[in-house]
Protein: Gamma-interferon-inducible lysosomal thiol reductase
Organism: Odontophorus gujanensis
Amino acid sequence: MAPAVPLALLALLAVGLGLALPGCDYPTHLWCSSREIAVACQAENHCANLTAAPVQLSLYYESLCPACRGFLARQLFTTWLLLPQGVLNITLVPYGNAQVGAAAAACLMHEAQSFATFFPVIFCMESGTSATRNLKA
């Protein structure tokens, strides 16, 4: 008779190989997207976003600075898009000599009040060839 393999070991192996467990109708990349899916797929212990407090990140940036624009558009925005909602809380603080861009970003943040609403717009402003021209659009 074959030795019994503990369910926890099977679950760990399934997570590592990307296999679904019985009762789990979701692909592995969705297992940590909600508590309900994690429970159905027996992956709660592997989902840090369901148990840990969100990471707090404040970015002080100058609107027209090429390095700041590159970081915000290529690294921070894409990371924010890829992470499950609620894992990363970002506070953007525009400042510096770029008065038009910083003032526009600050005004947008104040009016929209929802990070999920204004961050894509700020990404659009900062990722193009000219933040001031993108502002008009």
User: Anything to note?
Assistant: The chain has a mean pLDDT of 75.
